[in-house]
Write a structure and sequence with these properties.
Chain B: This is CAHM3 protein. The complex is a heterodimer of chains A (338) and B (306). Chain A has 338 residues and is an all-alpha fold. Chain A has helices at 2-36, 45-69, 73-82, 92-120, 122-128, 134-137, 147-155, 171-207, 209-260, 273-277, 284-296. Chain B is mainly α and 306 residues long. Chain B contains twelve helices and no strands. The chains are: A mainly alpha (338), B mainly alpha (306). Chains A and B meet through α1, α8 and α9 of A and α2, α3, α9, α10 and α11 of B.
Chain lengths: 338, 306
């Protein structure tokens, strides 16, 4: 039990830092993906906006969902939300706490992507180059073009090699203008997000500290209980398998004694423990028969049948216990998962 | 218990160093961010000042707030400040100490950003090129007032065709960069002298009160950590008892309803104990189903009384 206690303390104290670590890695990954991504503005009037805004908004959404997927606690939340009430009441505050803490962590990578995108400026330049105020920034002496032509020329601003509107509006001027707007938006976004995070974190102790402590305790409890239950079931399954196999070998041994009408040769007394472990199977044929039987007809998932003739072929079952409320409809005839 | 003690000694001695480490990382991150973000002055009369001063002052605010958020002690301080008095008196000196220590650490990264910005010079050149006196520079003195504003606004952009080899542009640029760097170094010097004096003169003023405030602020921090650890330990034991109680109640039910005699002593004692009376596929399935459909109540008082 000591080993379990150590492991659980480690997990508990480090679960938060583990999840924070995953957050940090995802944030770094998002900056890395952005810098590795080859941004290619289409430089066509109707496609620019879609491409630019798409690159700005779709990856953050994907990163947000990924943040949820990588979080182990999402299945715990879903389980707690969907379980029938039974004898244990459901506390919506606990569910809200779990969801909020997961959502906060999942938001970090998308926010980093949007900030980096805005501060870099390429997306906004691509998306809004057709909306540049030509009257202010452009050369007043240039003859006016039709709306469509103007848009086509302006759409090529991000692509310096094919830009042909230098007389209309200088390429560098337009790009500087758009990048300035983009960086201003980016820094405002960063400031807004930091302020929001600060407010959420600092107002909480002033208002709902007791309720927060309660929700946190019970959400940790649910997590630990689930882990302990899995551990207990694993222990149980191990013991079940051990006893089942022991009974199988003993059953084989008894069968052989009954069938062959001769007593198994008793090994000398001083062989001791090793002899017991042989479980009465002491020659080549017997072992082969045991192995064949294990493959052809696995024993039933039912330990100890004291009065009935135990064999390796009977697929009987004990009396199913009468259940109070949930109707028991399953048939006990599937062994395939053993 | 020894292990607990070791862990808590580690926390106590390293709480300060963890905070210092985070402070250092944030400072490095701010410098890295400055170098990696492409500074591009708009070179337009109305926008230059806003952009230049914005880049100089908005990121430090965000870095300051980040420094407050990432510091664990800020939560401790807020809890101590907002808690009802109850049976324990509140000491304003402790809260003040915590507040000042948090603020000092949070100010390092913004100060680093401002100093790096000033030493680099681009922000100040962008913000104040339009406010220069054109009379002092040959090329700008001869232009009309409207043109002068446009020209001065284009000074930060070296690649602009009008400005490419313009000596007056270089003069304005050098002048503003000189001012910017002088300001940057002065601020750095003042901050370092202030930090030096504060640290050196502190023992001369009220050292006993300071020691008390520091002790009790460490105490509050550790008390909260230990409370969280104890809650974890408690919830683990609670869960353990609850699950054992659940298995026991299943065993009782099996005994009550099953007609076959259970044979004791099959296999080793350890295995029997771990099997907890559940020895059948149906019983296991039922147990798992019960665990989902009807979780046991959060009440282990019967289990502990047994």
């Amino acid at each position: 039990m000591d080993k379990f206690r150590m492991i659980f303390q480690f997990l508990q104290s480090n679960q938060e830092s583990f999840m924070n670590g995953i957050c940090g890695i995802m944030a770094l990954a998002s900056t890395q993906i952005y810098s590795a991504f080859d941004f290619n503005c289409p430089c066509l009037p109707h496609y620019n906006l879609a491409y630019g805004l798409g690159i700005l908004l779709v990856p953050p959404f994907i990163l947000f969902l990924l943040g949820f997927v990588l979080n182990n606690n999402i299945s715990m939340l879903a389980e707690e939300w969907r379980r029938p009430q039974g004898q244990r009441g459901k506390d919506p505050a606990v569910l809200r706490y779990m969801f909020c803490s997961m959502a906060q962590r999942a938001m970090i990578a998308p926010v980093v992507w949007v900030s980096v995108t805005l501060l870099d400026g390429k997306c906004i330049t691509c998306a809004f180059c057709t909306s540049v105020p030509v009257e202010i920034l452009g050369n007043a002496s240039h003859p006016s073009l039709s709306q469509g032509d103007m848009k086509r020329v302006l759409a090529r601003i991000p692509c310096k090699e094919i830009y042909d509107g230098q007389e209309l509006i200088a390429n560098e001027v337009a790009i500087r203008y758009l990048r300035c707007i983009s960086q201003a938006l980016g820094w405002c976004f960063v400031l807004l997000m930091t302020m929001l995070a600060f407010l959420v974190r600092s107002l909480r102790p002033c208002f709902t500290q007791a309720a927060f402590l309660k929700s946190r305790y019970w959400s940790h409890y649910i997590d630990i209980e689930r882990k302990l239950f899995d551990e207990t079931c694993t222990e149980h399954a191990r013991s079940f398998a051990k006893v089942c196999i022991q009974q199988f070998f003993e059953g084989m041994s008894t069968d052989l004694v009954a069938a062959h009408c001769h007593l198994p040769r008793k090994a000398p007394e001083d062989a001791g423990e090793a002899t017991e472990k042989l479980l009465g199977i002491t020659d080549w044929d017997t072992m082969n028969m045991a192995l064949k039987s294990w493959h052809r007809c696995k024993p039933p998932l039912h330990l100890h049948t004291p009065a009935l003739p135990s064999g390796n072929g009977w697929a009987g079952e004990g009396q199913p216990p009468v259940h109070r409320s949930v109707p028991q409809r399953e048939m006990a005839a599937y062994y395939s998962w053993v | 218990m020894d292990r607990f003690r070791m862990i808590f000694q580690y926390f106590q001695s390293n709480s300060e160093s963890v905070m210092n480490g985070i402070c250092g990382l944030l400072t490095l991150a701010s410098i890295k961010m400055y170098t990696s973000i492409d500074f591009s002055c708009p070179c337009l009369p109305q926008y230059n000042m806003a952009y230049g001063l914005g880049i100089m002052f908005v990121p430090p605010i965000a870095l300051f707030l980040c420094g407050l958020i990432l510091n664990r002690q800020s939560l401790v301080m807020l809890e101590e400040w907002s808690r009802p008095q109850g049976c324990r008196k509140k000491d304003p000196a402790v809260i003040r100490y915590l507040c000042s220590s948090i603020m000092q650490r949070a100010m390092v990264a913004p100060a680093a950003w401002i100093i790096v910005t000033l030493l680099d010079g681009k922000c100040l050149i962008c913000a104040f090129s339009g406010s220069m006196d054109p009379e002092k520079f040959v090329d700008f003195a001869s232009a009309s007032p409207v043109q002068v504003q446009q020209l001065l606004a284009k000074v930060p952009c070296k690649d602009e065709e009008l400005m490419r080899n313009n000596t007056s542009r270089k003069a304005v640029s050098r002048y503003l960069r000189c001012w910017s760097q002088a300001l940057g170094w002065s601020i750095l010097l003042i901050l370092i002298i202030a930090a030096f004096l504060a640290r050196w003169l502190r023992p001369c003023f009220n050292q006993a009160a300071l020691l008390q405030a520091r002790h009790w602020s460490n105490y509050i921090d550790i008390e909260q950590k230990i409370f969280e650890e104890t809650c974890c330990e408690h919830s683990r034991l609670f869960a353990h008892k609850c699950i054992l109680h659940f298995f026991e109640s299943m065993r009782q039910e099996v005994k009550l309803h099953s007609f076959s005699l259970s044979r004791e002593g099959e296999g080793s004692e350890g295995d029997q104990a771990l099997l907890r009376g559940i020895t059948d596929q149906d019983q296991v399935n039922k147990l798992l189903k019960m665990w989902y459909y009807e979780k046991p109540p959060l009440d282990v008082s019967k289990a502990t009384q047994r």
